[in-house]
Structure formats: C-alpha cells, structure tokens
Amino acid sequence: MSALSGEDESPNRKTIFVTGGSGYVGRNLIRRFVADGHIVHALARSESSAAAVAALGAIARSGDMLNLSSLADAMTGCDVLVHAAADTRHGAYEAGQDEANLHGAHNVFAVARSAGIDRAIHISTEAVLLTGAPLINADETMPIPKRHAGSYSRSKAMAEREALSFNSDIMDVIVVRPRFVWGRDDTTALPQLIEAAQTGKLVWIGGGKYLTSTTHIDNLAEGVTLALSKGRGGEVYFITDGAPHVFRDFVSVLLTEAGQVPPTKSVPRWLIKIVVALGDKAENWTRGRVKAPLPTQQYATVGVEVTLSGDKAMRELGYRPIVGLEAGLGTLASVNARSAV
After folding, report:
1. Phi, psi (5° rounding) for residue 238?
2. 265: Cα separation from own chain's centroid
3. Which of 17, 72, 262, 312 fits a disulfide with 252 by CB distance 3.0 to 4.6 angstroms?
4. What is the number of domains present in the chain?
5. Cα–Cα distance for residue pair 301/310, rounded to 1 Å
6. Which CATH number characterizes residue 173's domain?
7. Mean of the pLDDT values across residues 99-106?
8. Distance between CA atoms of 192 and 202, rounded to whole angstroms?
9. pLDDT tens digit sequence for 258-291
10. Which residues have CB under 8 Å from 304's CB, separation 6+?
11. pLDDT digits over 219-247, tens only?
12. CB atoms within 10 A of CB 20
C-alpha cells in the first residue's frame, strides 16, 4: 500500500505542507488530501486565506514564501511538501513575477530540505514549453526552449529548474505539469472566459478548430497523489484528461454549462498575430501601463494547438483519469453558473 493511498491507517498518514492552499489548485488538493486521511498544513499570508484553508480542513500556518523565517516556522513538523503557489498572470509585462515564482520556489524548497522533508511536489505547467508556436503531442523529453511566450512561461520554467535542483538523496523532488485546469470551484480559467464572452472580447482564432489537452481538477489531484507515492525524484510528469478536445468545442461546452452563450465570431489568424505583436511592444515599452489586448503569453495558451502525451504518467505512476468530460461538466452547471450572475 502506498504512503498516500487514502487508507486512514496511522503508518500511512502524512502531514502535508501546501503552498497556495487558498488558490484554485491548492484548495482542491487540500480537499483530496483531507479526504484521504492526511493532516494538511497550508501556508496563509492573510486572515482571509487562513479562513479559506481552515474551512477545507487544513491547519492554517501564517507565513510568506518570501520570508524565510516565517516559512521555516510554518513548515516545522511536516513530512511532505506540495508547492502549488504561483503568480499566474499572463500579461506581456508582469512586474514581480520572477520574484514570486522563481524566488518563491527557491525559498520553499530550501526550507523544505532544512526541515527534513523527504518528498516534494512542484506544480508546474505546460506553459514552460510555450513559445507561441503550436505544441503538438509533446512529452517530457521536450527541452525547455530558450525563447518563452512571456514572463509567466519564463518564470515558471526557471522555477521548475530551481525546484529540480533540490532533488537529492535526502529529498525527492517531482514535477507535475497540468494543462488548462478546469472543473468545479474554478476561479481562474472559466471566470475569465465568462467575462470575455460577456464583454464580447472572446472570439475564435482562425475558427478555433485546433486541439487542446486539458486537466480536470480532480484528475490533477489524482496525479499529484500518485506522484507523491510513486513518482521518481528528478522526474517530470504531464497530467491530462487523456485524449485532447477541439478547443472551440470544449470552451463552448464550458460556457454553455456555466449559463453563457458561446461566441460565434471568428478572426483570421494573420490579423491576430499583428494584434499580438503590437500589443506586446506597447505593454513592454510602457512597462505595463498600456495593456496588450492579447499578449503572446495568452495567445500561446489559447490560440494554437497545445497537446500533450500522458504516457509517462500512465506508465510510471499508474495514472488514469478518474473524471471524464461528461462527469466534469455535470459539476459546472450547478456550481459555476453562479459566477455568471
């Protein structure tokens, strides 16, 4: 039986330290870990964050990733680390993103090593591979490119490298990369899509008929749980829903289930590329005072095919998606429709 198998037996019960616990991914990881019988300590920078993680059954630990002393105090007594905190902004110019993502990762893993934690997960993203060109059936052997789509891709790539640099004989560090995380309780992708649809900003690039891999939030939690018990230190694993979806079809279904009417307008790709290039220049020249309507980072994320191979996770972790499209959509109609009101 694995150390994180979900059985409520004292030898298998772990104390898991989670960063980013009040965020979308972190909240759902806490739910899974608590349901599996583990003790969860979650880093909280504010009273509202502390209240949010406590409501999920975690023990709120006051601290900040950029404050080593508070981080060390918060992590004391924990067995396992899951680093889910990140600055996920996708603008062309995002001041402070390197500090939050790179320096935050350095501090978290350095303190974990000093605290005697021997097993750690870094939640990364397929965005570390994005440049703006299509990414087709990528696997974990694909090297991180020298040119990135934006500061999010760059800072997360650096953070992933930093996390892996702490992999050693005394602490296994495993990287999990999801793509387009969705599902109940979504406070990231779906609310942004709803807002874009309501304001008329959401259009289909070149018809939107390219493919995309996705990761339901419960499938991500399953992948993280398996990576903690079976993942090999120093390795990277893509966690996906399996077969990719047509981007337009998938987003349209999400919007429909959330009570929104999907857009019908399509814009030629050549025109979008001009808008992207000019917008990036304006945002960078003005150091973020002028916001690009569609930065390269966003275009690379939602404007081209991004498909991933999940074979490694299936082979080494025994991972299989536990939530399919129909079941996942069923949770949206009752939960996420409220965000449209």
Report:
1. -80, 135
2. 29
3. 262
4. 1
5. 18
6. 3.40.50.720
7. 96
8. 10
9. 889 999 999 999 999 999 999 999 999 999 999 9
10. 132, 133, 134, 135, 210
11. 999 999 999 999 999 999 999 999 999 99
12. 25
